[in-house]
């Protein structure tokens, strides 16, 4: 069997880290960036790309109450809603890319105060009168995303579809699936995009590999 690699991407993790590492971009630019980033992994080992699977949830399309402004925010008309849908559409147009969507919980979401702002309030460096809309973030709860990643890891391993899995993610929710894949002889590589890796996750991978600071990756500034 030729060396075949599947790249599995935790979408929420990637978009957050990409914004920090590579800056703000349009949906189409971010999709092009991700495609180029994935191909850096393939070129690095001169491997055949089986597929890139991108896991996320569709953006919320509902009304949410904002505790500071006391107004109801129509999320379906937000810039984030438009950007996310355009990003998904751009990814679907990429060769070898597959979109795996979970869903967001129908309840339990809303605006919460940024943890850093809470600390500033507790330290009395700010007062409630200083708060702005930007000090609040939308808290949502995904369903099915981690499960889909785990199921695909197991499927790829049992069906012997690949010899290597590259996981672009930042938490240890996938450890059971990773352990199974390694027992099946799959080379499991983690790309944490420069973030810290928990000891639990680090123990169960075959190696770390990132390209976020690679000079061949031209989108990095």
Please give the number of β-strands: 12
Helix amount = 25-40%
Uncertain segments of ≥5 residues (pLDDT<50)?
A: 216-221
Order of helices and strands: EHHEEEHEEEHEEHEHEHE
Q: Output the CATH class name of the domain at 4-59 and 95-103 and 142-208.
A: Alpha Beta
Characterize the structure shown:
This protein is α/β, with parallel strands linked by helices and 221 residues long. It has a domain at 4-59 and 95-103 and 142-208: 3-Layer(aba) Sandwich (Rossmann fold), CATH 3.40.50.1010. The chain is 37% helix and 24% strand. It contains 7 helices and 12 strands. The strands form 4 sheets. It has a 6-stranded parallel beta sheet, with helices on both faces. The chain is globular and about 60 Å long. The model is unreliable at 216-221 (pLDDT under 50).
Describe the secondary structure blueprint for this structure.
Elements: E1 4-10, H1 11-22, H2 27-45, E2 48-56, E3 63-66, E4 71-74, H3 79-92, E5 97-101, E6 103-104, E7 110-113, H4 115-122, E8 136-139, E9 142-143, H5 145-158, E10 164-168, H6 175-183, E11 187-191, H7 199-203, E12 207-208
Parallel strand pairs: 1-2, 1-10, 2-5, 10-11, 11-12
Antiparallel strand pairs: 3-4, 6-9, 7-8
